[in-house]
Design goal:
single chain, 150 residues, Aminopeptidase, four-stranded antiparallel beta sheet, 4 helices, 31% strand, GNAT family N-acetyltransferase, acyltransferase, GNAT_dom, transferase
């Protein structure tokens, strides 16, 4: 079941966030995410967050307007539809979705491309000095054909 974030979810969300970042971004110095976790913990309640709750939080998506500020899934629930379900929830709420993905994060890039996102630009992340892509998905509601149609 996908539902809105509740304050009691924060500890589990932060554990999934930290583990996911450390696993997916082994090209970034290991302490970077730990150093930024307090900021993220403060920002989560200010964002629109949906969680996949199957006997506890198994994944989440954080949105700031139509920008995906985070999509993380517990390693045991990856490749089982959790990420796709969270993206579908975001597509129900927005006509366009944007997300930055590190160019070296091949799994995330493949996932977003499989969800009909397109690469629109490349830049350097100022905090990590790593190359990242901006991906966009145009959502066409109530239409059967077209990119990202619901």
């Amino acid at each position: 079941m996908i539902r809105e974030y509740q304050p009691q979810d924060l500890k589990r969300i932060m554990a999934i966030w930290l583990q996911g970042n450390e696993q997916a971004h082994n090209f970034i110095r290991p302490d970077f995410f730990k150093q930024n976790s307090a900021i993220v913990e403060m920002l989560i309640p200010m964002s629109t967050v949906y969680v996949q709750d199957i006997d506890g939080v198994k994944g989440f998506i954080g949105l700031t307007e139509n920008y995906i500020s985070g999509l993380f899934v517990d390693p045991h629930f990856r490749r089982k539809g959790t990420g796709k379900a969270l993206i579908e929830k975001a597509k129900q709420r927005h006509n366009e979705l944007l997300v930055h993905v590190y160019k070296k994060n091949n799994d995330a890039i493949a996932f977003f491309l499989s969800q009909n996102f397109e690469i629109v630009s490349e830049s350097i992340n100022e905090e990590t000095n790593e190359s990242e892509w901006l991906l966009r998905c145009n959502v066409e509601h109530n239409v059967r054909i077209g990119k990202c149609a619901l």
